[in-house]
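Request:
Um, any thoughts?
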Amino acid sequence: MPEKVVIVGGGFGGLETALSLKNLLPSAVQITLVDRGEYHSFIPSIHEIVSGANRARDIQIPLALILGLAGISFVRDEVLSLDLKSKKVLTSSRVLDYDYLVLSSGAENNFYDVRGAETFSHRFRSPEDAERIHADLCSLLADKTRACSIVIAGGGPEGVEVAGELLDLIKGLGYWHDLNSGRISLKLIHGQDNLLPGFPAKAQEFSREYLLQKGVTMAIGHRIVEVQQDGVLLDSGVKHDMSMLIWTGGIRPTRLIQELPLTKDPNGWLKVTDRLHSPDDDHIYGVGDIISIYLHDGPLALARLAYHALDQALIAGMNIHNRLRGRKQEGYSPKDKPQLVSLGKEMGIYTQKDMVLSGQWVVLLKKAVQARHLMTYLTKPGLSAIASRIPGQELWHLLRIFSPL
């Protein structure tokens, strides 16, 4: 009987774990991936949906297609709970048994208990969130009889990328003069002293100066303490008018992870060893946003980035393979790779360690990374037959939308 592996989440970590494990053990494991969504989305590009440069479908691939052709079962459903003693995953429609469990269920917006934030904010975590923002923004901007105050909460990569896309949207719709005249205002509020925390100082300063020059106003070093229907109140006591609030100010574990009876770190993230399994159960692995990796001397300082999730997925898959083959577990060691941040369609920032470069070419490079990632799943080892089995019209559509140019 093949070993049963259940993977929760079809994001970067979950999908990569499923496909790499299937390649390592084509017949020794029965893999099931569970996700409540229909698609795998390239989340680093969802800001482009805000401006209309992309549609949600342009950055997505259908999970059922890719997994089905690879011989992996896909269950589109929401995981309600986990029975760790009986090794069962409980969804809203079924119960799945497992021998090994891989958790990669992602995160959700963290509103930090700010009163009114969850009620009056537009979330920014998914392509669907970005489409709602785009539609509502277009309606707001079209009403020329009223002032429009757009507020972005959070000055990390998501916040500055959204700011850049909003500038593109305003300009693209012909409202640039309204931004200059003050009918439209765009404000970014960030609780820390610098934009892009964790990035080199040169990148922080460049992003600040670029956005200011384009017309974004900022309140840096001040936190939102209350959100009302028509405004946000800062810890300084100042209130800013608000027609729309877009919340990019941090993430937290989902309810599934919060309620999981396994060891967590102080912030509620699933604690794992450098082998990426829970210290409480070596048959449960975690990859991606949900985990906090602990070494002998404490937690590993690691940003929650897509490329880390992909690398972790390879290690998790390899370690399940090694356990089944009686081999030694491999440790995860993060690699330092470039980070790409766009500030709209005309400017981006490239950083690696202390090196900082900028230019429109960064935006094009990011699009190429997106195309390569999505198209890789049509040509992965073990999936070579996929392209020939996709109906011609669907394959043409995939090739067209994933072209980097």
